[in-house]
Q: What sequence folds into this?
């Protein structure tokens, strides 16, 4: 098991946000059709960081949560 952990790449921070948002949708706290800005209500003080991350990936706060969940790779372009 230790060797397996060592071979894994470090996940992009947006992967963490995406997992948390998916969990919120599955738990019925958010709908896939809700706007991304609704996440701000759940993240409080951490929201400014996540908002900047989302904006850097060209999301708008009016985009539906489903757009965030649809991303398959968070690789940043050089």
A:
């Amino acid at each position: 098991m230790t060797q397996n952990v060592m071979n894994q790449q470090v996940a992009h921070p947006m992967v963490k946000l995406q997992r948390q948002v998916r969990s919120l949708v599955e738990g019925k706290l958010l709908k896939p059709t809700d706007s991304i800005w609704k996440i701000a209500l759940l993240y409080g003080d951490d929201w400014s960081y996540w908002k900047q991350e989302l904006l850097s990936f060209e999301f708008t706060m009016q985009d539906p949560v489903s757009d965030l969940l649809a991303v398959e790779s968070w690789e940043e372009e050089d």
